[in-house]
Amino acid sequence: MKIYKLVFIIIIIFLYYIILYLNSNFIPKLKVCLCVIGKKENLYIKEFVDYYKNLGYNHIYLYDNNDINDEKFDEVIKEEIDNGFVSLIDYRGYRGINIYPQIEAYKDCYKKNYRKYDWLSFFDVDEYLQLFPSYLKIQNFLGNKRFKHCENVKLNWFMYKNNNSLYYENKPLQKRVNIPVFNDRNNFVIKSTVRGNLSRNYWSFASTPHSSDIKFNCCSSSGKYINYSAVVYKPPDYKYAYLKHLQNKSFEELCLKIKRGIPVRENQNIQYKKSFIKGLIEYNKNNKEKMNIINKIFNLSSYKNNNFSFLI
How many CA atoms lie within 13 A of 154 on its CB side? Predict the structure, then answer.
């Protein structure tokens, strides 16, 4: 009799996990897109697009913010553009004199697509959404009842770094930048995934790339309330999801990123570059190899007498 009871218990447990597995992998009929702005990202964009396609995103709207004569995204993701998975929006040469190009792109993306999708994510090319413990697709995650009354799911960053590499390696970014930084203050920072059909003006002039300033109901990955205008959430909520932020690549790539600039107003961009180049030189002036990289990328002859005209 005891053996029958044991077998019965094992069968019940087995059926329980089978039902749990089926429920966790049932994919709700949600349409989810990703809005992203990129500049000089050809080394990384293919891996990024493939990752989010495999995660279940229905479409990517990629805003091309390269300079007019710079590289083109269709050189590396032509297939995904031709088959309609990626829409390439021309922001080439956009300087953003009056507003951040990133905010302008987010506004444009939401305004044009908020009625087409149930949810719209606003991430960067170095941010990889991690879902767990059993969510295989983005639809499984966003379809959970904990988000029933949520209009913006704000996900915390989790910063990662490489093993102090000096130069770019032709390997997948997630394999190169794979060391978690648990005590990084940037882990408090959040990025937004916004419900569709709210308002075509979700992002405003006063918004940031991390959150809108408009009063919608916002929550963390586990459904906890977050203030609508918050750009940080602490302690970070990693219970069901987080954004793996692969910002800290090789030293060479750091220099190239600074030279590229960030998608803000152009006068702020120049100040950003000046400040970071000065810091790089001061911090690494006794490191011959790093100074060689800095000189190669920035041409330090232009740095004499604080002449930063080459940044303009």
Answer: 25
> Do the beta carbons of residue 273 and residue 311 sit within 8 Å?
yes
In whole angstroms, give the CA distance from residue 15 to residue 25: 15
pLDDT at 253 over 90: yes
Quick: pLDDT tens for 6-35: 767 777 777 655 555 555 556 779 999 999
- 134-157 pLDDT, tens digit each: 788 999 999 999 999 999 999 999
Cβ–Cβ under 8 Å, residues 92 and 64: yes
Burial class of residue 74 (count of CB atoms within 10 Å of its CB; 0-12, 13-18, 19+): middle
CB distance 191 to 212 below 8 Å: no
Whole-angstrom distance, CA of residue 217 vs CA of residue 231? 14
Residues 6+ apart with CB under 8 A from 300: 281, 294
Q: What is the CATH number of the domain that holds 228?
A: 3.90.550
- Residue 21 lies inside a defined structural domain of this protein: no
Q: Is residue 11 in some structural domain?
A: no
**Residues 15-20: contacts with CB within 8 Å, 24+ apart?**
20/134
The long-range contacts involving 223-229, CB below 8 angstroms and separated by at least 24 positions, are 223/146, 223/147, 223/150, 226/154, 226/190, 228/152
For the entire predicted model, the pTM comes to 0.86
Q: In angstroms, rounded to a whole number, what is the distance separating the alpha carbons of residues 266 and 261?
A: 9
- Is 133 within the bounds of a domain? yes
Based on the structure, what is the number of domains in the chain? 2
What is the spatial distance between Cα 51 and Cα 53, in angstroms, rounded to a whole number? 5
**Residue 271: alpha-carbon gap to chain centroid:** 24
Judged on CB neighbours under 10 Å (0-12, 13-18, 19+), 291 is middle
Domain holding 157, by residue range, is 27-248
